[in-house]
Amino acid sequence: MSQAAIPAAPIGASTVTRAALIGAALAFALAVALLAGARYGLLILIGLGFGITLEGFRFGFAGPWRRMIVDRNPDGLLGHLLSIGVVALVAFPLLSGAGDELIGAYAPVGFAMVGGAFVFGAAMQLVMGCGSGTLVNAGSGNAIGVLTLPFFAIGSFAGAYNLIWWTNLGSLPTVVFSGTSGLIVTLAALAAVAAFVLWLAPPELRRIPRRYVWASLLLAFFAILNLIVAGQPWGIVYGLGLWAAKGASAIGIPTEPSAFWGIASNQQRIADSLLTDVTSLTNLGIIGGALLVTAWRQGFAQRLPSYPARAWVTAIVAGFLLGYSSRIAFGCNVGAFFSGISTGSLHGWAWFAAAFAGSAVGVRLRPRLGLGG
Amino acid sequence: MTRRLTAALVLLLMAGLLSFDLASSRPLDIYDQPSLLALGSGSAADGAHCAALPTE
Predict the structure, then answer these.
(1) Minimal Cα–Cα distance from B27 to chain A, Å?
(2) Residue span of the structural domain in which B12 resides
């Protein structure tokens, strides 16, 4: 058969399907705006932006860290540093001038915080999905991601339930870099890390692909928008824990005895709709954005992989650990690493170091648990 | 089996979550909504973030 006789393979969904996908996404955001309020509809759109960027450019956190550890390829990690630096350039002046209208991702460094970040780093390499990555994986129909997500939510609820106990094991006062001097320290530290990973990398890998530059800049744009609209930086795990907390309440598990869930503001959030919770809305948007991109590319035609039983068990355990550890670490790759550093919290840097060490362990564990090399 | 199955499962889970939420939560009040942007609103940020320790 000649080459010309081979029918062209479909490279994406039809125009009608694509128009319907965009229409459905916009209709959902509009419905939230009409039911709950304009800010909440806008947060759905921001979440869609995050999801479309992450899935559309195939840009995440677990994969780039793995490439740095295994191949000393710094491409994605440099993209993270670029994106965090761009957000910091805007967020620091905003936080300095906005009074209490805006808050940063500030948390104390402590024993449990560092340990939690280490466990999170290891677990995210097992399932190749971090906080945002698990949402994107689920939205794109990745079977491991779909299984991991509910256990991530349950783990997040449980971790928050015990958060105060863990934090009382020992924490430093919260350290925040702020103002012009804080911004200079943060940008200098980001540049130093970038120089270090470039020094570690072989010469032919010392670059950021153009698509990662675009992805980094778009992520920064949506993260800044998130701060301006919501009054707080981009986060993931509070929302997931809240989903499980609402479920726990519904089946009679008391949340009041928890030093975290029992406080008045969290009891109110359990009683209120998820459509008024900032991180729940952006999380829903991320899942929707990944789903939209995958459908756009006709990616749902991809066959599901076959894994041994221990791989599925690993996904469940790792999902729970991702949720639990990210709560006691005061955030995941988004809330602690991305938003912590870009708003000046020292805990973001401690999280980065501990999670990267954990990732090195996770990379070695992954093939032994049947999830591939 | 293809990803259509898992994607359908995710859509069902999300639809179920939102249905359960709307049925079991305090009713939404469109007249009690915050301003569009937190920046410039004059109100203190009161959302919940994973980095925040409870202060109450």
Answers:
(1) 7
(2) 1-25
